[in-house]
Inverse folding.
């Protein structure tokens, strides 16, 4: 297992997450519905909107798992912070970054993962991901575009949420 390194903009990333309250346990109905829709669209048991904190991966919205966070050290989504495009892992057991990962060898037994980066104000905060217990033979360009489109919907929702956090003075 290879842990994702911290990006150069880590301090700014973390302050952005904190500034807009994205690590709070409050549910957002739009993001919850989007996670369910993405899981169904990709015929996968798990989908999540995941934000990467200093030591943990926090699921702002998730379907298919009963957890709200995992350790950053075993997070697939932490690797997405380094990719400007979606990251696809067809079989995690065959990928050196994830083969020994506790989320692969133990519950939830991740085999397939696809995650698209989520940006707010030019900073990658996490990913919209889809996960399966079975490996996949392919994840084609149309599917990548669809996942990116769903991640864009998350970004647009974050912009709305960020605007709601700006006081009447216009200062954040």
């Amino acid at each position: 297992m290879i842990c994702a390194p911290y990006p150069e903009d880590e301090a700014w990333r973390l302050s952005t997450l904190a500034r807009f309250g994205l690590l709070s346990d409050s549910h957002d109905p739009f993001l919850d519905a989007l996670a369910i829709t993405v899981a169904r669209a990709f015929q996968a048991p798990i989908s999540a909107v995941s934000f990467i904190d200093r030591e943990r991966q926090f699921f702002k919205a998730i379907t298919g798992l009963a957890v709200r966070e995992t350790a950053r050290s075993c997070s697939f989504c932490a690797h997405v912070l380094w990719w400007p495009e979606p990251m696809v892992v067809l079989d995690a057991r065959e990928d050196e970054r994830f083969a020994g990962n506790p989320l692969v060898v133990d519950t939830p037994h991740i085999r397939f993962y696809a995650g698209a980066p989520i940006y707010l104000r030019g900073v990658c905060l996490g990913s919209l991901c889809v996960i399966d217990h079975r490996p996949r033979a392919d994840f084609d360009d149309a599917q990548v575009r669809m996942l990116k489109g769903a991640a864009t919907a998350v970004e647009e929702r974050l912009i709305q949420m960020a605007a709601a956090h700006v006081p009447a003075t216009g200062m954040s």
In short: Residues 167-172 have pLDDT under 50 and may be disordered. The radius of gyration is 15 Å. Strands lie at 46-52, 56-63, 69-71, 87-89, 112-120, 123-132. Residues 141-164 form the longest helix (24 residues).
